[in-house]
């Protein structure tokens, strides 16, 4: 029996970015897209072009660099959304427009305020327009999980008729159980009868997104939409790594299907995304959590020492987690070794970026004896918010806060090249630094989250600070990273990094794209 491919559609850069605090800038998104391609993802949903100039720019840049994977943009069933999506993906070697409209009674009545007939009409118009730009068009019935199956068949027939090639059935609110999704996909599979590929997109509100995706595959779905680390709106989306490893480990059950995923790139991809978003998978997260291969009880440890398979259903090496090569570089490591390491960790830098990263690596190696994978990741990701013509921290001086009023003096180079110094007080030293930065830059940020993680052990450990800051209450919070042996300096860099990211996403540091 010949095997059928399950298309892996990764939406980390679109639905994943909808996780609170996961907004990424263009540079970060390009790194992720490049790594997703290396992972073997078939379709990369790079964003929602009409959402903002920043989204448009990121999709457009990704479309220029990604060669093997299909690059896709989301678009509502609206003329302007589809035009923006088509423009954004234009440079891609393989491109797809993904358009959607809600089909459940509750969404049609309250959100769209449209009759079912109008919804079908809008869907058909959207697919027709998308088809005039690209041959690969996906149509999603938003909230399909709560839609009437008869109505789904009607709208699916109508969009297939005008050229939709993939039909996506999202359980948008994550309410369905595996047997229900299985039955629904079976009925739709028989109805569609190979006129289009059936896709599923499951949310994890009841913790069933992966189980539901697997049930769908067993019943004919041949595309799954998923994200790395299960990132996504609310409780997230189905986790790519869990679906792929379930198909692989249980090939006895899924003997009729395969994916193009290179599982050895799973762990590097997961770490890349955690270090860019600052969102760590829970320690006991399946496949990529810190404890996924940790054996605590004596009985288990004894068993694993005798034969790993007693308590491990697959080797960590299968996902690219090679415990033996985490201790890596030091002061005497050369540029070639550094470059090779970066590639292994999923970073692709141009010559200029590589030179600057190598310089920072050497500076770090002077301060720290052993440099670990996580140090390297932080070294690279902490620099991704330093976009061209951005604000730059020149100097920071903290006034002693013991018993006195915490205060900070900050010097910043503005995008126009001017150096401005100011000093301010705050409820604590961090507060004083951030308030002074706000005054100098003229952008008032609201700190939503502040995390400091020490990278590796010892007194020489680096402080890796990740902040989430909201600069406009109508926009999501953005992330900033700062790395330094000094926590205050790392905090100032992280805060300024978040501002630079925000400004670049808003298209405020560069000229906006024409037509967006
Ligand atoms: O959850 C959902 O329904 C979506 C669609 C836009 C596919 O993300
Ligand atoms: Zn979704």
Secondary structure: elements and pairs:
Blueprint: E1 4-5, E2 7-10, H1 26-39, E3 43-48, H2 53-65, E4 70-76, H3 79-89, E5 95-102, H4 105-112, H5 116-133, E6 137-142, H6 149-161, E7 166-171, H7 178-192, E8 197-202, H8 209-218, E9 223-226, H9 240-249, E10 257-258, H10 266-277, H11 298-306, E11 327-329, H12 335-344, H13 351-367, E12 371-372, H14 373-381, E13 392-399, E14 407-413, E15 419-425, H15 429-441, E16 446-455, E17 462-470, E18 478-484, H16 487-505
Parallel strand pairs: 1-10, 2-3, 2-9, 3-4, 4-5, 5-6, 6-7, 7-8, 8-9
Antiparallel strand pairs: 11-12, 13-14, 14-15, 16-17, 17-18
Helix pairs in contact: 1-2, 1-10, 2-3, 3-5, 5-6, 6-7, 7-8, 8-9, 10-14, 15-16
The protein binds 3-methyl-2-oxobutanoic acid (KIV) and zinc ion (ZN).
How does this model look, in words?
Helix 3 runs parallel beside helix 5 (116-133) and helix 8 packs across helix 9. This protein is 39% helix and 20% strand. It has three domains: 4-273, Aldolase class I (TIM Barrel, Alpha-Beta Barrel); 335-381; 392-514, Alpha-isopropylmalate synthase LeuA, regulatory domain (Double Stranded RNA Binding Domain). It contains 16 helices and 18 strands. The termini are far apart. By secondary structure, it is α/β, with parallel strands linked by helices. Mean pLDDT is 90; it is low at 510-516. 3-methyl-2-oxobutanoic acid (KIV) binds next to strand 6 and strand 7.
